[in-house]
Batch of 3 targets.
Target 1
Amino acid sequence: MRVVWLWAVLAGLLAVLTGPRAMDEDLGRRARALIGEHPEIWSGARTFPGERSLVVGAPGAAVADLADLARRADRASALVARVVGPVRPLVLVPATTAQAAVLAAPASVNGLAAVAGADRVIVEPRSFARLSGVGRDVVLAHEITHIATGAALDGGTPKWLVEGFADYVGYRDAGVPARRAAAELAGEVRAGRLPVALPGRDAFAAGSARLAQAYEEAWLACRYVAGRFGERALSTLYRESRGGDVRAALSRTLRMSPAEFTAAWREYVRDQLG
């Protein structure tokens, strides 16, 4: 039965590959490998190639929805390329949250609209559907940034920098005011509760009580660096921190100690959200 499923999916994919907007060879190869991993999910799947991306949708997915997602993924990939470098993602849209969890494992999709693997974005269909157009663009750019930086294979870079950098790229051209993008954290700041320290790895765990605030704190840390020192400095800080020595990276890149950086970030949070 698995072989029958696989051939059925590949036949559908071939129809797209030979169409006028056929994807490049690398995306096609990666899509075929993906389908081979989970033919039970992708039997009867629809695919839509963008100029920089490929969207694979669960059976029954509307072509118009896949086309819209491909356009958004293309725009997000172009944005990421300007900040990080070229990237050509697969965007996977399973039919259910349970299927998204299977595709994302061992990462969790709990409370998230999408997650990134080494070369793919897995959409959690229920949460993603609730997002506005701007929200979808931000999420896609965030996750595609993770692909471009190799975040799925990076266990050394501080989590606040990994997630904050991805959010910085995601919000870079979105035109969303800081108080709106960081609404949960803004509520705390207005109530007199200013964050004391940058969020640790555990703060980003799925289901964390302050998960939204952790992302917002991390985003504002990276936004502060880009605003004061420039976007190139932020990219350099990320690159220099990949070995895990953020203290040395802060010193070399920003000429600041961790304590000085934390104090400056806290004042920036107060200024932006207070």
Target 2
Amino acid sequence: MHIHSGPGKQNDRTYGSTCLQTVQPGDLCIRDLGYFDLNDLHQMDENEAYYISRLKLNTRIFLKNPEPEYFKNGTVKKQTEYILLDLEEVMNQLKPGQTNEISDVYIGQYQKLPARVIIHRLTEEQTRKRWKNQELKEKKKGIIMKERSKRLSAMNIYITNASPEDVPTEHVRSLLITLANRITL
């Protein structure tokens, strides 16, 4: 229903919230740049709509702790309920060009949005190109990228609430790439 292409400095987050009113059950919302509001994605999920989004590398991803600690009264200690996913460790287990899916993750430090995460490690050529572009941005803006951020930029991370049967892992990335290529044509 909505396709919006705007200036590169305009993010998807604010636009995404404005078109949320028209989202119907079964719709698929694609956020190719990774700018979103977790409340919007949660509302889409509640309305039985689907989303696919790129995930910013500074977004926290958690797994449910299978062995949380409990207080004497039987309630779970909140700080032990989830385990932070180590993205560097996951990336280092992937070969360049390889994609991996982790089901049943939770996105966000506080909200814990349930989702599927698809992690794609870039090829060495893609990584060099990304680092070269980042160097130009750093020089232009007078900033220095942290080493950890630079290492993590060798991958793309996507999240979705669509089942693997509805949107197979190998199609998540290609949907975003196809959309981006069609918009830039």
Target 3
Amino acid sequence: MSNTQPINVLFLCTHNSARSILAEAALNHMGGGRFRAFSAGSSPRANQQPNPMALEVLSKAGIATAGLRSKTWDEFGKPDAPHMDLVITVCDNAAGEVCPFWPGQPATAHWGYADPSEVQGSPEQKLEAFRQTLHAIRRRLELLVNLPLASVDKLMLQSQARELASKS
């Protein structure tokens, strides 16, 4: 990886409507040109759109939402798709979700987050779940974007990203 090329990071989840969308937008906001984030789902529903509460929480945090859309990971398997350097699953294994598997050679890590769209309660309680998820994602991304450039070769990137999974 050259120091001039951004590191492409793909965040994967099941439906690509909440956690992976939050992570994509947050990393593009925080990455300072060193990182370029994308997101996708292993099985987005027909006509899936980003969760409106995810978009609201991002907007209130001052993070751009233009261009965010739910999409299948098949888009990133096409010949003209950007090459991914790091693939991070953000679904929650503990909740019994099936997390997507990414074939190929990018570095991989799993950062599990509970699905905020599954929270029951008042609209304010649901919105708070999205805020808390964004906050948790941003804490890990803060560590990722501040890794020294020397740490960002493929093997170091994978071990660093996996180590961040234990940070909260």
